Amino acid sequence: MVLKNKKIKNDLILIGAILLLAAASLLLIMLTRSKGAFAVAYIDGKETARFELNKDGEYSIDCGNGDYNEVIIRGGEVSVVDANCRDKICVHHRAVSHDGESIICLPHKLVIMIEDSADE
Amino acid sequence: MSKTKKIALLGIGVALSMIFSYIEVLIPPISGAVPGIKIGLANIVTLFLLYKLGAKEAAAVTVVRVLLTALLFGSAVSLIYSATGAVLSLTVMILLKRTDKFSPISVSVSGAVAHNVGQIFAAIILLGTAKIGYYLAILALVGIASGAFVGVTAWIAIKTIKKI
């Protein structure tokens, strides 16, 4: 490894480029995002429930086979408060409120997607 | 190297990377923001083989490891995520190594980021949602950290284990 220094320099450039891309994409997202209007629950790709974000409430989403996720809508945000999936990643997820954000429960094939009124 | 020896080495590679995968499951999830993020310790083996034996050998071991791990511990869905991550990661790493301009560390970082990106694309297709911009930034950051750790470890192994 005689050319170690040259390679390390290229390493830093490459990693720097990746960091820059990441920062740029994050900035782009944060600048163009808007507050969502609905939290839509998709199970296995099919819409099964739609909640208005400006109406507070607690709901239980039935994902079939006895699987459920309990969501709460408060202050224009939605979060998962309980679920009977094995890893409960959805429960630990922070609350979401912007168009395009989502909370996903992979074991239940559940995607809670924030959409604005113009969306599909 | 005799064919027998190579087959034996590749077999060890598969077994070792599977053990690395298993150890990872025992470590609590490193990121709460994005589910399923892992350090990718198994790639230490992939990188080591890539630099010591070659692209074909590293790819073979990775493919077999992904298949076996999914068969033994996973599901059809986990296989899809694993496979897309592995294929993209392998492609990127093999191409970068071929340029001979980078050390194993950034090759590993690029592989880690590519792996995460591959999994996100699989998620987009499987879940039918396209707005993943949020995740790309986090994945890149976590990929850099985990890729650097795996890369440095593999680099040390590559330099220390001179004869195989």
Task: Please tell me about this protein's structure.
- The complex is a heterodimer of chains A (120) and B (164).
- By secondary structure, chain A is α+β, with helices and mostly antiparallel strands.
- Helix content of chain A is 28%, strand content 38%.
- The longest helix of chain A has 29 residues, at 4-32.
- With 164 residues, chain B is mainly α.
- Chain B is 79% helix and 0% strand.
- Chain B contains six helices and no strands.
- In chain B, helix 1 packs antiparallel against helix 2 (43-52) and helix 5 runs antiparallel to helix 6 (133-160).
- Classes of the chains: A alpha+beta (120), B mainly alpha (164).
- The A-B interface holds A 1, 4, 6-8, 10-12, 14-15, 18-19, 21-23, 25-26, 28-29, 42, 45, 87, 89, 92-94, 99-102, 104, 106, 109, 111, 113 and B 29, 32-33, 35-36, 77, 101-103, 105-106, 109-110, 113, 123, 127-129, 131, 133-134, 136-137, 140-141, 143-144, 148, 159.
Keywords:
heterodimer, A: 120 residues, alpha+beta, 38% strand, elongated, B: 164 residues, mainly alpha
Short overview:
Helix content of chain A is about 30%, strand content about 40%. Chain A is α+β, with helices and mostly antiparallel strands.
Q: Which helices and strands occur, and which strands form pairs?
A:
The complex is a heterodimer of chains A (120) and B (164).
Chain A: H1 4-32, E1 38-43, E2 46-52, E3 57-64, E4 67-74, E5 77-83, H2 89-92, E6 102-105, E7 110-115
Antiparallel strand pairs in A: 1-2, 1-7, 3-4, 4-5, 6-7
Chain B: H1 3-26, H2 43-52, H3 55-73, H4 76-99, H5 104-127, H6 133-160
Secondary-structure element series of chain B: HHHHHH
Share of helical residues of chain A: 25-40%
Instruction: Please indicate the percent range of residues of chain A in DSSP E strands (runs of 2 or more).
Output: 35-45%
Q: Which bin fits the share of residues in helices of chain B?
A: over 70%
Largest interface: A-B, 35 and 29 residues
Q: How would you state the average pLDDT of chain B, rounded?
A: 87
Strand content of chain B is under 5%
Give the overall form of chain A: elongated
Largest sheet of chain A: 4 strands, antiparallel
Outline the biggest β-sheet of chain B: none
Count of strand segments of chain A: 7
How many H/I helices of chain A?
Answer: 2
Helix-strand category of chain B: mainly alpha
